[in-house]
Amino acid sequence: MTKIKPIILKGTREYLPKEMAKRNLVMSKIRRIFERFGYDTIETPIINPTETILGKYGDEGDQLTYNFKDNGDRNIALPYDLTVPFARLVAANWQKLPIPFKRYQIQRVWRAEKPQKGRQREFYQCDIDIIGSKSLICEAEVAKIITTIFSELGFEKFIVKLNSRRLLNSILEKFEIEDTVSAIRIIDKLAKIGKRAATEMLLEAGVKRASELMKLLAPEKNNAETFEKLADCDSDALLIMAEPFGPTCHTGEISCFGGKFCLGDLFRLLCERKKKMPEDSYTTSLFQDGQEAILAKIEEESEEVVRAARSEGKQRLIEESCDLMYHLFVLLINQGIDFGDIEGELGNRNK
After folding, report:
1. Residue 30 dihedral angles phi and psi, to the nearest 5°
2. Residues 285-308: tens digit of each pLDDT
3. Residues 81, 109: contact at Cβ < 8 Å?
4. Distance CA 250, CA 264 (A)
5. CA end-to-end distance (rounded Å), the chain
6. What is the signed CA dihedral for 104, 110, 111, 114, rounded to 10 degrees?
């Protein structure tokens, strides 16, 4: 009788009961947080028609996708990630789904790459998405969920890095770049290939001011300076990106763009908007419409906060409170009040 060695394939892992208990505890906490924010879970098939998976990730992704023929001579592929299977599920079932649809999924995926530190061939992926809404508040909510998960898992210091396609498109438009897809693909490789190589590739792709673009994309020493530098590109996108961090980052423990962010940064960013008044900005329109328009928005948002507190749940209350805070800041700035005045008043009350 041939002896079979009890081995597993490289790039895969197995977990004994003690390790599984820890993994299950973490996953259960993550699931509870997702559900607290109103997300529903789904499951998609492990084996898929090849045409469903291939051609969606570019050449590199296709090369790393496990695909084969089964006994029925059908072309089969294993999921490379959870995004494409989710898109297929929505396309097939959109009439049965609530819109916007908030979904989470924790499931195995497979990649046919060389195993190394941090890279496995079989691993779990954890996804959340909101489909059916164009609001940037959705992006802010996802960032808020990330910070909530890490905080409740006991991490005290961590960095959330934000990526805004809308902001990046605005920056590329400012540089009059026509082939934005090629430029974005090069920028995506920045951390891997370095600034010099990325600059050279951008020049080869026809981006004349590549060095200037790289300088603009580089984060400053803190978020306030980074926001100020990018504000002329898309100030409203920056405000939405800042929003989920305002209430949670006053201790300076959570940061994005490589620096710390607090409510004072948001206040100062709004002050800059009043000075420069960029066109096509919601903040600009508020300042231009004057105090009565701002007060009307505050009354409207106050009613929404009360309604959320009474019947719409904790997450909705957080969202509406952020909106109210934003409009209160606009009112204070319009009245010529400085953030130092607010800090002084709060300091007096704490004495």
Report:
1. -65, -45
2. 777 888 888 888 888 888 888 887
3. yes
4. 9
5. 83
6. 120
Kindly state the tokens that stand for 64.
Answer: 């790393």
Amino acid at 207: V
Question: Which two tokens mark 130?
Answer: 């909101």
67 three-state secondary structure: strand
Is residue 37 within 8 A of residue 145, CB to CB? The reply is yes
Question: Is residue 69 very low, low, confident or very high in pLDDT (cuts 50, 70, 90)?
Answer: very high
Under a CB-based contact definition with an 8 Å cutoff, are residues 305 and 320 in contact?
A: yes
Torsion angle (degrees, nearest 10) of CA 269, 274, 279, 283: 70
The CA-atom distances, in angstroms, between 79 and each of 10, 13, 40, 45, 63 are 18, 18, 20, 8, 13
pLDDT digits (tens, 9 = 90+) for 326-345: 888 888 888 888 877 777 77
Gap between the Cα atoms of 259 and 267, Å rounded: 17
Coil/strand/helix, residue 124: strand
List Cβ neighbours of 158 (8 Å cut-off, separation of 6 or more): 150, 254
* Tens of pLDDT, residues 191-212: 888 888 888 898 888 888 888 8
Pairing of strands 75-77, 48-49: antiparallel
pLDDT for 41 equals: 95
CA–CA separation, 290 and 52 (whole Å) = 53
Asked if 269 and 242 count as a contact pair (C-beta separation under 8 A), the reply is yes
Task: Read off the pTM.
Answer: 0.62
